[in-house]
Amino acid sequence: MAVRLEVGWRPELTDAEGEGVRRQAREYFGLELHQVRVVRVLMLDLDLPPGELEAVRTEIFTHPTTQISGFRPLAQAFDFDWAVWVGFKPGVRDNAGAVAREAIEAFLGRPLAPAAAVYTSKLFLFGGDHLDGDQMAMVARELLANDMIQQARVYSREQWDHENGIGIILPRVQLAHTPEVAVFDISSLESLRELSRQRHLALRDADLPIIRDYFRRPEVVARRAEVGLGPPTDVELEYLAQARSDHCNHNTFRGLFHYRDITNGEHLVVDNLFKTCIEAPTREIAWKKPWVVSVLWDNAGVGRFDDESSYVIKGETHNSPSNLEAYGGSLTGIVGVYRDPMGTGKGARLIGGIYGFCVGPRDYAGPWRPRLHPRRLLDGVIAGVKDGGNKSGVPTIGGTLYFDEGYLGKCLVFVGAVGLLPKEVGGAPADKKAAYPGDLIIVCGGRVGKDGIHGVTASSEVASPGTPAGHVQIGDPYTQKNMLDFLLEARDQGLINFITDCGGGGLSSAVGESAMMAGGGEIDLSRVPLKYQGLDPWEIWISESQERMVVAVGPENEDLFKNLARKHAVEATVIGAYTDRGVLKVQHQGRTCAYMDFSLLDEEFPPWEFDCEWLAPAGRLSEPVLGDPTDHQELLRTMLARPNICAREWITRQYDHEVQGASILKPLVGREAQVPGDAAVIRPRPESPRGLALSLALNPAYSQIDTYHMAAVTIDEAVRRLLAVGGDLSHIGGVDNFCWPDVAYHPEANPDGKYKAAQLVRACWALRDLCLAYEIPLLSGKDSMYVDGLLPGAFGEIHRVSALPTLFFTAVSVMPELRRAMTMEWKNAGDFIYLVGETRPDLGGSEFYELMGYVGLSVPEARPEDFLPYYRLIEQAGREELLASCHGVYRGGLAVHLALASMAAGLGIEADLSGVAKGSPDYAALYAESAGRFLVSVDPAHRSRFEDLFKKQPLILIGEVRPDNTLKIKRQDRNLVEISLEQLRIAWQRRFGNLI
Amino acid sequence: MTPPKSSTTENRKQKTENTSARPRALVLYGYGLNCDYETAFALNQAGAEAIRVHTTELLDNPAAIWNYHLLAVPGGFSWGDEHGAGVILALRLKLALGTALQEFIDSGRLVIGICNGFQVLVNLGLLPGLAGRPGERLAALIPNDCGNFRDAWVHLAVTPSHCVFTQGLDHLELPIRHGEGKFFAAPEVLAEIKDKGQIALKYATAEGAEAAGHFPANPNGSLLDIAGVTDATGRVLGLMPHPEAHVTSFQHPTWTREKEAWRRRGQPYPGQEGAGLAIFRNAVKYIEGIL
């Protein structure tokens, strides 16, 4: 019989979690609570005699000095007015429950019955004046529980059952279902179309005849008849849908774009953005760069780190799931992207993680009603990456956050991972992998459930109230950490021939792709370990249940591999073998349910086609008429407090950025204030003096003017960030992550689709041009389309809200000598401050214009041919150690970045900006966001050498570092700013300063 | 309710047989521990021969522990920190090793638990390890008062004590990275820990003054600003900050400032030993002294 165990902190102890909920309730709803206590609940769905239960309670789950517990309600121990219980819905991953079950087995020294389970949940006890049921229901709904994955119950003190409390609640999965394989009649295109719609296959009309014709081909019919198959099965069609999805196949990027410039009437056809703007330039550059080890085919790109090892890098986005369940979505995202380096070559060890969040304004109070308020959504995605990163033992070395109302429709959650791969494993190159016919197909890690079904196809659709929520999951970093530890040892013992991640598309994708490389494969779905019975074969085939990898192991190594798995408490199951028969054969309970040759996936499916219409910015926008402000002091303070400029230390500190002991330049730098550094530097091999620098940039605001320049400036920023910390210009690898609204024109549903398509083409052109100019191979990348949402407004009307076209650009560089690393804060009073690079009145899309309520026209532009000569000199000056500090000038402009460098140093400055943006207003000198600029400080002893080095370059001496605490800026003999660093710090930190 | 395996003490060795000239250190890993590589690296830098041993291997063969002079339980999230940080790993070790760990200490060997390892040691009752009360769970590391995981560098004042790991140290800077690091014990236990000189490390301000419970100098609300404690023998150290993450000055958050100061003196920056290494050096020196 099931029993309920409750555990809580002793009443006299602070309940830090409860206090956190109390703070959130005040911030979210203005609700004043006296007290919040949290009682952890374990529903023990197992049969144990009372003596053992009592021992389990005291010996495992209760700390004698800090906790109280019991099999009767604990709530009475606390003074409470309302209680809210929150537990998972059936089938949602319950990590604490799984650990509890394992611990009980270990404690008892015997396995529990297979059906025995522990379900964990929480009971929140609230004390406060005049709380009512509606308020509590709101707290339950909008703070404590997400109905996608959780259920909640609200109890008033009067309703509370002192004997039984919440009773026994067992979220068992009960599927009274006998697995079956459905066969579909696809004789007419209409029936196929209807099938696609009903099953959320998201197949395009143009693909349907090809699929139908394949299954009608006489040789296909004959071959299928031999294995007892006729028309296609659901296993096969689901597989096709996965393989054909935009998510897996990148149909948009591989599409045919009819680009028309409305301004000048020019028309051109772009066939395949991926090939022309990503693949071709990368191949051309890789050919020139011997450090490029592996690009464009594996789960992630590989670059040489030193003679013995390489780094592996990958960026991903996890937008749609995070938008529905912020914590689970971002947790699954970060844990998922770690599997990419692990699935690259023969498997890389994880050495770093990065993140980027784009959400609506944290204090949004407008009329639109997103499913999750941006504040809650942001809190959730932050926490997801926190648990995912910290519990995986991977340092989260950098990240970014950007607010804009466009992300109310769908948030962006970018996650990236860096790994380290030995040059060789067992005498063979570690970056190469191949599954051979006869190799066993082994699935490792987590078990399969209904979770994650149709994740891939759902992220290829616009979010609407009808989107199936089945793809929302909760990641399990603990299970994955065990798996990664295990796989690294298996790799080093030479047991892995091939390895790949089981992510989007599940087994269908992982087994399908690897079998295609091997030349064929046969698997038996009934051997796949399941979380619970009752799954149809097609569900097992495409489920995206997390924490799984597929490995090819030679049959002679099966025992070694399995023994090693046991040591690491990892489940590793042989589900089939690779063959050389050219077909993928899938069986279930002795029956063939899919039999497909790979030629179908290579069929000439027609490319997706898009009409693009570009209207040059001058036809849409103009420069505002704006006089110079008189109160520059207050303006600077206001700029520093802007949500996209101000301090976000609260996020950075939640992330362990130092585990593995490799952190050389941390995400926050400086002595007095902790200010974001330009880029992170890590030391992946402690015995080596080499460093790996990693930067991240995004500038979606410029998309309002021209996405070409948005992308160009973003790439330039990522490059400058690397140079500012001492990166090597001859070794820069890039990772492009596009997040774009739907680019398919529809007269009613997407009337500006042609413009968005043109925006995409232009951004890709910039990507191509800048990568060629800076010689950046794209080591990996990802496109996430459909960043749109349908949001109810104040009167129940529905709005389509599209995000700003956004490019996350990650750049990586290898530093031969990490002692040359530089940071952005001034080091010494008396040092000279120089601005390197030209400032033009580039205020279009700037933070300053945004503050003033304008977009403007004069967007910053990247001019690599002008920039590169002095970028090389920055590198040289760094090598000669002429620079006491080095910092790029990015969003916010010069005044903001002078303030940041001063705050970080705790040293004032006296600056004269008369030579900056000559002939333009003061605000242009202070806040223009021209690309290609650095702020450096130089020891007076190096002045002549430094100026000599830069003599033909745009270099302006703008001032001097002062020993005092005052930031003074003047221009044309006018004092614009004279303000204490303390006041600046208060302005910069006040917005989020109370968050921890 | 399996009784502790007796095999653990049967193969007990009073003296570790040394195959190399260096003291042998066992660094536990697996099940979500994650600071094993850098802890082994720090021990090796300090002169030990550190060997990463998977927790399963130790649980299956507890007698293996007698082949080592030092046991290090590193940081991480063993079993995902579910049901309390360090609780499940402590349970597993207790079930498999029984009293062997206490005997390991009593035989003159050393144990260090860092972060998650510290949480394990208090749940095993090895710490505070008051005289006459071995194995009692008298202290706990509970969720930070700030309510969240926190990564930050802290200043630590070393309390003069009999702890072998902190001998000769006065003040050091190390990073903390935890969500459950508030040291808690009943008043009489705290008083005894203090009176018997078992507080090894306390959070302090940058100037070296007492943190006096104030955030962020005391990052988690620890009672008496306790960052690390030793047992009655002085041969066990548990601490929340990470000494293995400060073994070279390049790991310090403001090293580029130091570099610039060296350069201005006309000297290239040498890259110095980090403050945390001394803790491991002390351990190695102690073992070498008794070998």
How is this fold's topology laid out?
The complex is a heterodimer of chains A (996) and B (291).
Chain A lengths: L2 E7 L6 H14 L5 E11 L4 H10 L7 E4 L11 E7 L6 H14 L8 E11 L5 H12 L5 E7 L32 H10 L9 H9 L1 H9 L7 H11 L1 H4 L6 E6 L5 E5 L1 H16 L3 E3 L6 E4 L4 E9 L1 H6 L1 H17 L6 E11 L14 H17 L5 E8 L8 E11 L1 E2 L2 E2 L10 E6 L9 H4 L18 H16 L5 E4 L4 H13 L2 E4 L12 H6 L5 E6 L4 H10 L4 E7 L4 E6 L2 E7 L1 H4 L6 E6 L17 H9 L8 H4 L10 E3 L2 E2 L5 E2 L3 E3 L8 E7 L9 H18 L7 E8 L13 H22 L3 E7 L3 E5 L5 E5 L3 E10 L16 E5 L10 H6 L11 H16 L5 E4 L5 H12 L2 E5 L9 H6 L6 E5 L4 H7 L5 E8 L3 E6 L2 E7 H9 L7
Parallel strand pairs in A: 7-24, 12-13, 19-22, 30-31, 37-40
Antiparallel strand pairs in A: 1-2, 1-3, 2-5, 4-5, 4-6, 7-8, 9-10, 10-11, 11-14, 12-14, 15-16, 17-20, 17-21, 18-20, 19-21, 22-23, 25-28, 26-27, 28-29, 29-34, 30-34, 32-33, 35-38, 35-39, 36-38, 37-39, 40-41
Helix pairs in contact in A: 10-23, 12-13, 12-15, 15-18, 20-29, 22-23, 22-25
Chain B lengths: L6 H4 L13 E6 L6 H10 L3 E6 H6 L9 E4 L13 H11 L2 H7 L3 E5 L1 H9 L14 E4 L7 E9 L12 E8 L3 E4 L1 H9 L3 E6 L21 E5 L5 E4 L15 H10 L12 H14 L1
Parallel strand pairs in B: 1-2, 1-3, 3-4, 4-11
Antiparallel strand pairs in B: 5-8, 6-7, 6-9, 9-10, 10-11
Helix pairs in contact in B: 4-6
Using brief descriptors, characterize the structure shown.
heterodimer, A: seven-stranded mixed β-sheet, 29 helices, 25% strand, globular, B: alpha/beta, Rossmann fold, two-stranded antiparallel sheet, 9 helices, disordered N terminus
Q: Which CATH architecture of chain B?
A: 3-Layer(aba) Sandwich
Remind me, CATH topology of chain B? Rossmann fold
Strand content of chain A: 15-25%
Largest sheet of chain B: 9 strands, mixed
> End-to-end distance of chain A, in Å?
42 Å
Global geometry of chain B: globular
Unreliable stretches of chain A, pLDDT < 50, 5 or more residues? 464-469
Count of helical segments of chain B?
A: 9
Order of strands across the biggest sheet of chain B? 2-1-3-4-11-10-9-6-7
Output the structural class of chain A.
Answer: alpha+beta
Number of strands of chain A: 41
Strand % of chain B is 15-25%
The total number of structural domains of chain B is 1
